[in-house]
Every structure is written in structure tokens, then in C-alpha cells.
């Protein structure tokens, strides 16, 4: 009986890491001198809150003025078992540090993003121009920012690397000025302020730009926004875009949506045409459908067969005997 009780308890020591003082306005009283040792016995699953309550009451100290340390500060809801406390281990007790009444200054990034967006809009101190298609739109920009944020522009604008570096003009074709401006906003501020307001065609175009200009973070942001817009009408477009631009998260989301609503989606002629334009998608659709289809056991087919013994008997019945054969020859 005693052996079982001992196996469920643990003996340890609480040592004062400093003088534990009961402080007052007129005088201070040292209740526990530094390095004082206090032996304790607890159940392994007992909460430390009982230790805190007992120790402070026994030594005449406010409970909230103390903190107890093992490897880390002990949680009142923890237990000896939860912190792997062993026999003769030492727990330190000390005064809880006073909390500062001075509010810590908050670091706000909003001003940085706002200033960077203003810099892009103003074009102040720009040294390169980005021209878009045939719309006549152009965006003054800064080589250092483009190069620091985008590997594509870093390679393009390296001194002597390409004609864009010398001319200071980058031409982007086959994309709208609106989406190019969104891409530049992301390069400058690491965000697109109205990304959640874009439609599926705009998101696909921005996703295409992100993949073309090696902006992985922008591609991920577009995938997350697009995943919220997937529906019966645009799933084909999103699937093809995801396949063509390495948007695996978006593709998996679309495949899950397809499995759930496959009966309605397969009735859509536009969806079938979009899938036909990207054969690799068709294979993946078949694959996910096959994984979801239940396995139907095939019933064994009954095969009529005869044993060798039965067959030989049948042959013997059909063949004439030797005597019959001889008599036929002589008649």
C-alpha cells in the first residue's frame, strides 16, 4: 500500500532564489531568507496551484507576489508529471517582477506600406519606366526596388544584361495596365489592397503575371483569393490556369470542388471545352474520380468444366472396343 502511494508522489525541494520579503509602507519583513530550502511532497498529477497556495500561506506572503521556476516558469494548471519533475529536483521561488506602468511603443507597419505606395504613385526619383501593351499606360519605377523584390527584374535590369537595362524602358505586352499596376503595388508594398474585390478573370491574369515574373508570394496570394471564388461557372477556367501556372493549392481546391459537384459540372459544355484545351487536367479529373468511386467486388463467373476422369470416361464410351473393331474388319 505504502509502495503504491510513493510511486504516485514525488519529493522535491523549493529553494528561495532571493530574500522573500513582506513589504509594507513602514517596514519590510524578510519572511524567507535567500537559499532557504523547503521540502515538499506532491502527487504527480496534482496541480501546482496547490503548491503556490500552500507555500505562500505557510510563509505569510501574498500568493500573487511569488513565481516558481523549474526549467521554465511553472503554470498553476501544470503538475509535477507534466514538467517531468523527479525526486530531489529543486524548484526556485522568487518575487514576481513588477509590471511596468509605461505602455510599450507599438511598431506599426501601415506607415511604411503607405509611403511605399505613395512612392510608386508619384514616381519620384524613378529611373525606369514600365510601358504596358498598346494602351499607352506607363508606370515610373525604381530599379533598386524592382531588382530587390523580383528575380526577373533583377536579371533584366542588371547593368549591361539586356536592352531594357540600357534604355530604362520595360515593355509588358498581353496584359492590362490595371493588373500590371496591381503587380507593382505588390512589389512595392508586399500586398494588393483590393485583392479580395477582384473577379475571377482578373485574378487569373494577376496569377499569370505572378508566374511570369517569378513572384511566388503574389501567386500564393492569388491562389488563396481565387479559392474563395470557385463556382460551377468558373471552375474550368481556374483549373486550366492553375495547371498552366503551377498553382497547386488552387488546383487541389478545384479538384475537391469538382468531386463534390461533378454531376452539375459535367453538364456544362463550356467546362468540357476548357478541359479539352488542357488534356493533363482531364487525366487528373479521372484520377480523383477513380479515388472517390467505391470498389465493387466482381462476382466469380461459373465455368462449366469436366474433370479429366469424366472426360476420359466420355471418350471411352464413344470409342469402339478392340473386339468390335476387329469384328468390323472381318465382316
From TrEMBL:
Gene3D superfamilies, per this entry? 1.25.40.420, Phosphatidylinositol 3-kinase Catalytic Subunit, Chain A, domain 1, Potassium Channel Kv1.1, Chain A
Q: What is this protein called?
A: Uncharacterized protein AlNc14C3G413
Domain BTB, by residue range, is 126-193
SMART domains per the record? BTB (SM00225)
Q: Which domain of life is it from?
A: Eukaryota
- What organism does the record attribute this protein to? Albugo laibachii Nc14
Amino acid at each position: 500500500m505504502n509502495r503504491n502511494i510513493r510511486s504516485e508522489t514525488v519529493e522535491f525541494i523549493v529553494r528561495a532564489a532571493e530574500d522573500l520579503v513582506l513589504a509594507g509602507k513602514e517596514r519590510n519583513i524578510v519572511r524567507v531568507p535567500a537559499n532557504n530550502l523547503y521540502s515538499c511532497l506532491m502527487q504527480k498529477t496534482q496541480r501546482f496551484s496547490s503548491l503556490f497556495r500552500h507555500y505562500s500561506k505557510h510563509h505569510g506572503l501574498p500568493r500573487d507576489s511569488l513565481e516558481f521556476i523549474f526549467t521554465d516558469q511553472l503554470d498553476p494548471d501544470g503538475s509535477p508529471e507534466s514538467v517531468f519533475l523527479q525526486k530531489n529536483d529543486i524548484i526556485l521561488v522568487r518575487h514576481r517582477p513588477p509590471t511596468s506602468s509605461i505602455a510599450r511603443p507599438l511598431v506599426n507597419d501601415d506607415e511604411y506600406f503607405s509611403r511605399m505606395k505613395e512612392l510608386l504613385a508619384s514616381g519620384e526619383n524613378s529611373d525606369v519606366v514600365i510601358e504596358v501593351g498598346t494602351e499607352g499606360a506607363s508606370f515610373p519605377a525604381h530599379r533598386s526596388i524592382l531588382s530587390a523584390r523580383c528575380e526577373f527584374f533583377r536579371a533584366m535590369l542588371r547593368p549591361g544584361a539586356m536592352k531594357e537595362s540600357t534604355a530604362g524602358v520595360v515593355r509588358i505586352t498581353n496584359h492590362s495596365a490595371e493588373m500590371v499596376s496591381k503587380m507593382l503595388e505588390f512589389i512595392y508594398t508586399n500586398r494588393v489592397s483590393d485583392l479580395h474585390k477582384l473577379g475571377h478573370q482578373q485574378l487569373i491574369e494577376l496569377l499569370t503575371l505572378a508566374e511570369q515574373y517569378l513572384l511566388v508570394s503574389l501567386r500564393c496570394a492569388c491562389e488563396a483569393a481565387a479559392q474563395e471564388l470557385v463556382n460551377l461557372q468558373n471552375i474550368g477556367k481556374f483549373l486550366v490556369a492553375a495547371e498552366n501556372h503551377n498553382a497547386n493549392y488552387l488546383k487541389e481546391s478545384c479538384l475537391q470542388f469538382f468531386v463534390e459537384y461533378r454531376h452539375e459540372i459535367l453538364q456544362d459544355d463550356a467546362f468540357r471545352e476548357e478541359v479539352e484545351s488542357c488534356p493533363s487536367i482531364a487525366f487528373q479529373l479521372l484520377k480523383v474520380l477513380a479515388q472517390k468511386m467505391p470498389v465493387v467486388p466482381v462476382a466469380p463467373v461459373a465455368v462449366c468444366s469436366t474433370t479429366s476422369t469424366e472426360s476420359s470416361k466420355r471418350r471411352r464410351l464413344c470409342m469402339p472396343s478392340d473386339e468390335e473393331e476387329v469384328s468390323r474388319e472381318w465382316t
